[in-house]
Amino acid sequence: MSDTRYTEDHEYIKVEGNTGTVGISDYAQNQLGDVVFVDVPEVGAKFAKGDEVAVVESVKAASEIYAPVSGTVTAVNEKLADEPGLVNSSPDGDGWFFKIEIDDAGELDGLMNEDAYKAHADA
Amino acid sequence: MAGAQTENLQTTPLNDTHIGWGGRMVGFAGYSMPVQYKGVIAEHEQTRSSASLFDVSHMGQVIVTGPDHETTAQALESLMPGDLVGLNPGEMRYTLLLNDEGGIEDDLIVTRPCEEGTDGVLMIVFNAGRKDHDVAILREKLDPSLKIETFWDKALMALQGPKAADVLARYCDLPSKLSFMNAAATTIEGMEVYVSRSGYTGEDGFELSVAADDAVKLAELLVGNDEVEPAGLGARDSLRLEAGLCLYGHDMDDKRDPISAGLIFAIGKGRRVEGGFPGASVIQKIIKDGATQKRAGIRFEGRMPVREGAEIVDADGNKIGVVTSGTFGPTIGAPVAFGYVPAELAKLGTELTAMVRGKPVKGTVEKLPFTPANYVRL
């Protein structure tokens, strides 16, 4: 069972057990346009909730990605180095950015569920 | 990712058409303009492989009229370093509006029309964000006997790409008559259109000036061809960068001189010696002694775009230059940029390092344009 939560900055975290997979929503990839590069963090790096953890570059601009929860990066999506377009074609699938081991599951409560996020993105 | 600010923006005659075509509208130089329709990379590749239509109606179309060609051209030459007196009927020339310090107030194109009864007429296209400023300079500096008319409500569109000539040939015979940087009037389906073989993508193409009331009809007619898709500002930027072309306010401004910017071709050969334009003594000295800084075309390793504002550093991390335009070049398949560096480091093949978010990115100075120019000279 996975549970997907969203931040106000249009990132998602798909939670399975104690690990979350982080990427950007379909709405966000559509707003950014063609993604040409993703600057992913180092495996093992620790971040506090809200820290700048990655940067996604579209043809138009660079956008910061903030850690949705505090934790330690356990994996990064190596495929994005050669195929950054996966963020556009499959934002919640093959276009994920990194996995994070969650320090405090309680931090997830402050994030939006699918329905609340849809309302936020449509607003 | 806040929405674009759209209040207080002016619109072009094609505004509703852009929205109907799915354009994503953003504020640019005071106008609501489409940054993209389907996607920047798709539109970029469409322009390099087939043809695209760009709305450039935000740019400033001006006509200056005097008693004869020599009088009007000499008047403009007092503000611009291009050889304008030497323009033949139907020719157009890229040149600059300069200030007394030799800085660039704007870059522009001057066209001498070839039609009967146009002796003494010169047509100018200024940048959107500078057009009011530029016209104020013209009105202040030129003899009041010259008539200066602005056509801010007129439409201007650019049909660009290797198929542009085939498409336009379906409506008029100019593609077989006009060479690059030449212009003429024609009629397309009853519309009066002023056509020039020019553009800012590095590809063959045309710019079409038409009355606001005819803009939608002409744009829909052109995009109705299978070879043509609409393209936005995003693709226009990546195309002009790969084509080695400067963007005002980024790669040049009122503090940068034409020589440092690599724009000596905008100064007429005779005029480099004779002067007679604002800042001539400053610019002549730079031509003689060499510029201390120069604009270089830089290709970077990897895929991370190196954008405007990125510092260029030496081996010890000291700042030696700055990137003024940069993006991921879809045709090149690598990050490409323009940057100002000390002249000795602007030589082809020089390895440079730029800093992006604290990380060094290696690049090499390359010959401009990055992509071959495909201008058609008949």
Description:
The complex is a heterodimer of chains A (123) and B (378). With 123 residues, chain A is α+β, with helices and mostly antiparallel strands. The longest helix of chain A has 9 residues, at 114-122. Chain A has a single domain, classed as OB fold (Dihydrolipoamide Acetyltransferase, E2P). In chain A, the strands form two sheets. Chain A has a six-stranded antiparallel beta sheet with strand order 1-2-3-9-8-5. A three-stranded antiparallel beta sheet of chain A has the order 4-6-7. Chain A contains three helices and nine strands, in the order E-E-E-H-E-E-E-E-E-H-E-H. Chain B has 378 residues and is an alpha+beta fold. Chain B has three domains: 15-56 and 154-242, Probable tRNA modification gtpase trme, domain 1 (Gyrase A, domain 2, 2-Layer Sandwich), CATH 3.30.1360.120; 58-152 and 257-289, Aminomethyltransferase beta-barrel domains (Alpha-Beta Plaits, 2-Layer Sandwich), CATH 3.30.70.1400; 292-366, Beta Barrel (Elongation Factor Tu (Ef-tu), domain 3). Helix content of chain B is 21%, strand content 31%. Chain B contains nine helices and 19 strands. In chain B, the strands form four sheets. Chain B has a six-stranded mixed beta sheet with strand order 10-11-12-9-3-13, sandwiched between helices. A six-stranded antiparallel barrel of chain B has the order 14-17-16-15-18-19. In chain B, strands 5-6-7-4-8 form a five-stranded antiparallel beta sheet. In chain B, strand 16 and strand 17 (334-342) form a beta hairpin. In chain B, helix 2 packs across helix 7. The longest helix of chain B is centred in the middle third of the chain and has 12 residues, at 212-223. Chain B is globular. Chains A and B meet through helix 1, strand 4 and strand 6 of A and helix 2 of B. Chain B: Its EC number is 2.1.2.10. Chain B: Belongs to the GcvT family. Chain B: It catalyses: N(6)-[(R)-S(8)-aminomethyldihydrolipoyl]-L-lysyl-[protein] + (6S)-5,6,7,8-tetrahydrofolate = N(6)-[(R)-dihydrolipoyl]-L-lysyl-[protein] + (6R)-5,10-methylene-5,6,7,8-tetrahydrofolate + NH4(+). Chain B: Keywords: Aminotransferase, Transferase. Chain B: Residues 15-268 form the GCVT N-terminal domain. Chain A: Pfam families: GCV_H.
